[in-house]
Write a structure and sequence with these properties.
This protein is of the alpha/beta class. A hairpin with a 3-residue loop joins strand 7 and strand 8.
Amino acid sequence: MKVTCNHLHFRSEDPDAAAKFYCDNFGAEITGERPLSTTKSITLGLNGQTLMTISGRAEGEDPVAGSTEPRYGLDHFGFEVDDMEEMAANLKSNGVKFNCEPWTMPSGSMVAFIEAPDKVSVEIIQRPKA
């Protein structure tokens, strides 16, 4: 049996703004858009792979607000980069809020955490160069 990751699904107060955030800051591309119930669904790809689907609040739904606080369930997701300094500078120039500035872990990996739209916590990681 073969299992592959299909997508992550995010619910957003403003799906267009959320999609733009991931496109502007991480190079994602909008690969599809379709109606979904009484809202719409935007699919984003990254490097030829489906990354996520973002939809708005459908009629009759009352989504719970997001939080960047540590939590059970999905706490965060991460992007790996090859140059943390350049990525951090780009994110800061775009006004992205850092919840944890870049720092080096004992393993040698550099990590940072940012706040994406709808209070999604995103880790940025740069592994040590071999």
